[in-house]
Amino acid sequence: MGKLEYIKDIVEWEKEFAYFYPLKVRFSETDMFGHLNNTVPFVYFEQARIDYLKRKGLMQSWLQADSETMPVVADLQCDFLKQIFFDEELKVFVKVADVGNSSIDLHYMVKNEKGEICLTGRSTIVQISKKMGKSVPWTGDTKELFHEDREVVYK
Question: Would you say residue 1 lies in a domain?
Answer without folding.
Answer: no
